[in-house]
Design goal:
Length: 466
């Protein structure tokens, strides 16, 4: 009889966990994956990346129909009205197809789905839904949940004070949505509801939006979102939210302290970050400790301090991104199978899927300058023929390179398709490219990607179109 029920047990079926499970099975291991949610795919497929992109895409189409964009192209419409129920249904259809797709992949790869929340009994034994299951290696991929704001009660069913899950499921367009937190979720979901007709006010504690992004990008983001009609209250903190019936009254004051004032809203979105999921996991039973931020620390090979227990994705340090979790999922399975898994944490792109999109990879200009001398080149989308033809004047591509070697250290883009453009920059950096390597790579014309080539040409002072 085998010593364990499974070679590998993965806890959590988000982009980290389901990918780890499939890769481990591909490598010939006997694999189970415990997932407590009713569908596979984790936060990303159920209440994150996918439903938010479905609503961003739908709301962008609606906005184009009502804001004069169609008319500019000579497309005449009758009165345009919103069928929010249909827009929500197409979101649910996308989610259903993709979560069902993971279930299909589990079957195809013979990964056993253990339905229920797992809790450690010891390092090789977990309890799932009253059943005891053993495995030689256990991967913790339990992801993250919304960080609560002290004193503010989220009630997604009531729909007045909501988190991202509630904001994705509203059955009405709010009149005034106040977003607490000017990060990725606040700007993406704020954009959705602004496009659909809500007045949107973003209250951000810091003096700029989008922490972690390049300084120029953050400044430009504030200009762009203001131009789109969002009200931005930067350097402002929310000290309380009182709900009466369908109205919330927020008390806000300057982050540095000062006179308080109130804001009324019929919807408040709390989007101040996410925290790792470890409650109920029983990590105390295996002697696993958390760091100051409540995360599980691992080595470069995703081993925790407890032999046989590994961790990946949002529950460990690093950006909370689906593709980072996925890459770690592949790598951890390869390490468990005795191979060498590779994740280059220095080259993980990040994208904000608003219009335009904001994307970056590698170091910000500020961080690069702390490490040494740099050359910086910026090329405006206004001078890119495709962006100009498409009436998309906002944005730029910025390349940051080492001053001596001209090796690319970071790339930042604001463009309608920045999320797709950044893949090329990531690939170039992964291969250790210099700005010249990008500049001398033939780029198809007319494409937005030519702006990256021109920005790279600018490092040696020789862009053509500006
Ligand atoms: P998760 O996806 O959180 O999955 C963990 C799973 O583990 C969950 O399904 C949970 O039910 C399960 N679980 C937890 N505890 C247990 C247990 N004890 N037993 C069994 N199962 C358990 N990232 C991007 O890269 N691009 C985007 O566009 C993007 N958009 C987002 C939009 C929103 C609104 C949100 C909230 C997030 C978004 N993210 C995006 C972030 C992305 O969703 C996460 O980074 C990603 O899902 C992390 O993957 P994970 O596998 O670590 O965890
Ligand atoms: P975030 O960290 O991106 O932004 C939170 C913002 O809230 C920050 O700007 C912070 O300064 C601000 N804040 C914190 N406390 C505040 C307070 N009391 N009052 C006002 N502002 C306050 O977090 P998020 O937007 O909640 O997103 C969570 C995670 O989900 C992120 O790590 C992100 O990577 C991931 N995500 C990614 C995508 C994407 O890749 N497109 C989309 C959505 C979410």
């Amino acid at each position: 009889m085998a010593e364990y029920d499974y070679d590998v047990l993965v806890i959590g079926a988000g982009p980290g966990g389901y990918v780890a499970a499939i890769r481990a099975a591909q490598l010939g291991l006997k694999v189970a994956c415990a997932e407590g949610r009713e569908t596979l795919g984790g936060t990303c497929l159920n209440v994150g990346c996918i439903p938010s992109k479905a609503l961003l895409h739908g709301s962008e189409k609606f906005a184009e129909a009502v804001d004069g964009t169609f008319a500019m192209y000579g497309i005449k419409t009758g009165p345009v009205t919103l069928d929010l129920a249909a827009m929500q249904q197409q979101k649910l259809d996308s989610v259903k197809q993709l979560t069902g797709g993971i279930e299909f992949l589990f079957k195809k790869n013979k990964v056993t789905w253990l339905k229920g929340y797992a809790s450690f009994l010891d390092a090789h034994t977990v309890s799932v839904n009253g059943e005891t299951v053993t495995a030689r290696d256990v991967v913790i991929a339990t992801g993250s949940s919304v960080t609560p704001l002290p004193g503010v009660t989220v009630d997604n069913d009531a729909g007045v004070v909501v988190d991202s899950t509630g904001a994705l499921a509203l059955d009405r367009v709010p009149e005034h949505m106040v977003v607490i937190g000017g990060g990725v979720i606040g700007l993406e979901l704020g954009s959705v509801w602004r496009r659909l007709g809500a007045k949107v006010t973003v209250v951000e504690f810091l003096d700029q939006l989008l922490p972690g992004m390049d300084g120029d990008v953050r400044k430009e983001a504030a200009k762009i979102f203001k131009k789109q009609g969002m009200e931005l209250r930067l350097s402002t903190k929310v000290t309380g939210v009182a709900v009466k019936g369908k109205t919330a009254t927020l008390t806000v004051e300057p982050s540095a302290g000062g006179a308080a004032e109130t804001l009324n809203a019929d919807c408040v979105l709390v989007a101040i970050g996410r925290r790792p999921n470890v409650d109920g996991l029983g990590i105390d039973k295996i002697g696993l400790e958390l760091n100051k931020r409540g995360q599980i620390e691992t080595g470069h090979d995703f081993r925790t301090a407890v032999p046989g227990v590994w961790a990946i994705g949002d529950v460990i340090p690093g950006p909370m991104l689906a593709h980072k979790a996925e890459d770690e999922g592949v790598a951890v399975a390869e390490f468990i199978a005795g191979q060498t898994g590779i994740v280059n944490h220095a080259v993980i792109p990040g994208v904000v899927y608003t219009f335009p999109e904001f994307a970056g990879v590698g170091l910000t200009e500020e961080a690069a300058k702390e490490k040494g001398e740099v050359k910086v080149s910026k090329f405006p989308m206004l001078a890119n023929s495709r962006a100009k033809t498409n009436h998309e004047p906002d944005g730029f591509v910025k390349v940051i390179a080492d001053a001596k070697t001209e090796r690319v250290l970071g790339v930042w883009c604001i463009a309608s398709v920045a999320g797709s453009m950044i893949a090329e920059a990531a690939l170039a950096m992964e291969f250790g490219a210099t700005a010249e390597d990008i500049a001398y790579t033939c780029h198809a014309h007319p494409t937005h990607a030519e702006a990256l080539k021109e920005a790279a040409m600018g490092i040696s002072g020789k862009p053509i179109h500006i």
